[in-house]
Design a protein that fits this description.
Elements lengths: L4 H12 L3 H9 L5 H6 L3 H30 L5 H4 L5 H15 L11 H12 L8 H11 L26 E3 L6 E3 L3 H16 L5 H23 L5 H12 L26 H7 L17 E2 L6 E2 L1 H8 L5 H17 L9 H25 L8 H12 L14 H12 L6 H15 L7
Helix pairs in contact: 9-10, 9-11, 10-11, 13-14, 14-15, 15-16, 17-18
Amino acid sequence: MAGSIDRLEAFMVSEHKLDPSVFQKVKDLGAQSVSDFFGLYTECDYEEGVKELLLAALAESSSVVCDLMSASSTAFAEEDLEAPFPTELRQKQEDAFLAKYSLKFPPEFRPSSSLLARHYREFRRMKKEVDDLQKVRSAAESSAMPVTEVKQLGDFRVILKAEPPAQRSAIPSLHPGTKVNEFAVSDVLTYRTFAAERLRRHPGSVNQAIQWFLDRDHQTRVAAGALYAEDYPFGEALRQFFLHKTAVLWQVGNVGLIDEPTRPKRSSTATVESRQDDAELPNPTRPRVPRTSSGQTDSSTGKTITSNDVSQAVLVPEEPFDNMLMKAASSFARCYDQLSKDSFQPATLAQEAFEFASRYVDLNKEAERLGMKLCKIKPKLRMFLELSYCCTCSPSANWCYRDEDFAGKVAMAAFRRGGANTVRALAESYFLRWKSMYAVPELC
């Protein structure tokens, strides 16, 4: 049964906000019921109506475009297009580009101000023309920044396996109580950005810069791999070395080569001989020399190489930080000269120890200013000064220093894994074992 057209009108207007004029037109055509309303429109009528609406919208759009083009062709002169591009507008465009694409071009790759201004205004006014090649060349030669030589290493990228290791479960971090991914891609990308920037700033030729980079990159990766073999996260191990341990090597201008750090691979059943076999083979271009208590020994001459000799060979005197390191190493070498009973002088040892400590404090401040975590001041520096001030006989007669690095690493590893083996308990255990084997030295 056909319903009332009035009820349909009330429903459509109140619920769907339909224009009442539509139903007024339907009533004018003689519709009195819902069936009459639907009978007025056939499929052909619907298609014709859609076509009519589309053609009307297209005609209106064409009219608007024609008006804009006719207005833009007469509203500006040639000198208006060549007007300088406002600095604020250029910065706004660059910020919008950076926000959308996360990409920022260096200054030498940006278009000149006059050329960018013309492009911008022509696009805005829909009057873009083909630029004459000579005009582009003249604009580039007159206002573009000089292009500096950029050193690149070909396809220098970080390559991961087919299955990204970053998806692995978190493992204990270097910092107690926290966990991180075993392979943090962000740390690897940070290292890539750091290394590429140092390579670009190298003052030497392209070949020298690449050789300088390859040597330091190899040392950093080998050192990080050795630390990763001890169950440390690879990303943190890499960051630990290129930001702290090998930060001096990565200083631009430091062209010296030093022996790469090597460690034996971890093995619960390995002997001392097997650990030595697992160590990294030395680079044939840089022969390794055995270490002594006060430096290294040249295997060809038998002469002891002190820290002062190493700093003279590795560091660059023209660099301010390197120059401070060389002076501190020289003072430290003079402290070593007082180990001999024949040349020992209490006043000389106290003076040289004070000079070394003062230079070391200056190094710490300079490293903080440069953003490098080097030359950290520890309590052992204060102990060294106190012993040097009160020493009345040769230090070689009663001084004994045992490196706590191994005990510290074991204690930290145990603490990371939890349990009753705390850092303090393990440290005291190692000290008691050492004290049972060696007599505690007495100060004279």
